[in-house]
Amino acid sequence: xxxxxxxxxxxxxxxxxxxxxxxxxxxxxxxxxxxxxxxxxxxxxxxxxxxxxxxxxxxxxxxxxxxxxxxxxxxxxxxxxxxxxxxxxxxxxxxxxxxxxxxxxxxxxxxxxxxxxxxxxxxxxxxxxxxxxxxxxxxxxxxxxxxxxxxxxxxxxxxxxxxxxxxxxxxxxxxxxxxxxxxxxxxxxxxxxxxxxxxxxxxxxxxxxxxxxxxxxxxxxxxxxxxxxxxxx
Length: 233
Prior knowledge:
Rossmann fold; alpha/beta; globular; single chain
């Protein structure tokens, strides 16, 4: 009973913190060593504002990305923390998104039909999923042929560097505090081996400790879901 209480308390606190973070200005978050974008706002606007049709966001948190979407999309969210849901609805109302569906659940078992989604969006989620291979497989299951997977993720620093040593050392505590987040996850390797038709991404850094290295880009689902061809940059 005590364990359940503490678990719920942590989820409530985490949701409250994520909602407060919605007030942060992405224009103030500078991207370093990034070829095409100066700020996080520039990057998110480029990746999200043009999306159309059925857009599924996994782990939307408290709805920090909702301001970047066109109100014309059909937005579907899968968020396992139920205490995030009221904040998501508030953000959707604030930004004029009326065609929305919101579910509990996890990225490994998405509660939507096969071949039904035009774009899946993940920002700072693949670091936390229990089984990243299963999550990427289910993302491919729900995507329409030729559909896209848009991602922004912090990733592991290069091996044998001071940053990587720090990431490896803090991971056990980091996972507990930050809702199963792995600062040392080599996410790009999982993406490259997932079987998408193509993958294009950029690497860059943020001026924050531990989780400074990032990648962002787009993976495209196979047009016929039978042939695998991989391109990375």
